[in-house]
Structure to design on (339 residues):
């Protein structure tokens, strides 16, 4: 029987309820209740890819629950959809894990205070089981909350980032199909504009178009771009260009787009992730790293969007920056162990 979006949402929410009740000793069984035996789990560096509930528990959830106490999942966005070009059903969840940071985690010192551990997760559901997961989290921001700042000053501003300005991101109920189609069409158009920025004949833009002209086709002028720790958040098209787009385009070259494993939308929310999305050559300066023409590094990225009318209004981004740096020879977590 074909899995509906509402069925898939119910399974993911039940999965989250089981995790919420779990301890370090019981989390493997909790994870196994709603996942397949060959569950394919993708986590950011240093966890990478795992298969099955026991492997995921051992690698990630048991250490996390050993360090973090009284954990609460505080969702800001929750929606489902069918993957672009396929019939697979995916469910996206984004927000923070609020917890008491009571024991060291990955060498990050404990604070015994509240932390807001930012995450975005994509789950593919087949029948009554989750068969595939991509779990993104902002470990650099966790370090920052613990007083560890391994990155140079960032171009944007990092905050404990809020959910949607409209407070309507939790799409537990069935949504209007046309609204989701409109959102996905807009996201696809925006992606097409980025791909065509060096070939203006492909879009209705002059060849000498400014970045602002490119962006204003799909974005509101007062856009909010909620970037990860190490880059930071920006507000308005002009500040986005100044504080993120220009450094990204000038300091990273030979950009190769590898596609998305999932891209979908529901209502006025949509998003995607890749593994990796991009492969690039650092030219020098980006995230404080030197340039080296012989180094190619991957970016695993999540983007989640809110559409307001005919344009995008907000974008939340998580990037596996630790993996990106590690490929360039900087192992941030190993360096923590040495200090």
């Amino acid at each position: 029987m074909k899995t509906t979006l509402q069925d898939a949402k119910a399974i993911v929410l039940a999965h989250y309820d089981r995790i919420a009740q779990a301890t370090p000793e019981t989390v493997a069984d909790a994870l196994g209740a709603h996942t397949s035996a060959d569950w394919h789990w993708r986590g950011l560096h240093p966890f990478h890819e795992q298969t099955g509930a026991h492997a995921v528990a051992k690698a990630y959830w048991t250490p996390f629950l050993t360090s973090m106490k009284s954990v609460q999942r505080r969702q800001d966005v929750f929606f489902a959809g069918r993957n672009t070009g396929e019939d697979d059903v995916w469910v996206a969840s984004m927000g923070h894990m609020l917890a008491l940071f009571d024991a060291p985690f990955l060498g990050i010192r404990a604070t015994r205070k509240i932390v807001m551990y930012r995450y975005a997760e994509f789950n593919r559901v087949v029948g009554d089981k989750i068969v595939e997961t991509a779990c993104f989290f902002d470990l650099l921001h966790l370090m920052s909350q613990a007083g560890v700042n391994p990155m140079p000053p960032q171009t944007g501003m990092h905050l404990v980032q809020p959910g949607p300005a409209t407070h309507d991101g939790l799409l537990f109920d069935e949504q209007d199909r046309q609204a989701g189609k409109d959102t996905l069409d807009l996201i696809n158009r925006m992606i097409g504009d980025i791909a065509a920025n060096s070939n203006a004949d492909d879009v209705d833009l002059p060849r000498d178009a400014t970045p602002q002209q490119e962006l204003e086709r799909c974005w509101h002028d007062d856009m909010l771009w909620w970037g990860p720790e190490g880059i930071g958040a920006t507000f308005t098209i002009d500040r986005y260009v100044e504080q993120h787009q220009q450094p990204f385009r000038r300091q990273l070259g030979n950009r190769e787009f590898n596609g998305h494993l999932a891209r979908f939308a529901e209502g006025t929310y949509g998003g995607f992730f890749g593994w990796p999305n991009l492969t690039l050559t650092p030219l020098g300066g980006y995230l404080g790293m030197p340039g080296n023409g012989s180094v190619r590094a991957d970016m695993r990225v999540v983007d989640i969007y809110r559409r307001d009318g005919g344009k995008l209004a907000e974008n939340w981004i998580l990037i596996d920056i630790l993996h990106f740096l590690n490929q360039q020879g900087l192992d941030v977590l190993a360096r923590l162990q040495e200090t």
In short: The domain at 5-145 is CATH 3.10.450.50 (Nuclear Transport Factor 2; Chain: A,). The radius of gyration is 20 Å. Residues 198-203 have pLDDT under 50 and may be disordered. Residues 177-195 form the longest helix (19 residues).
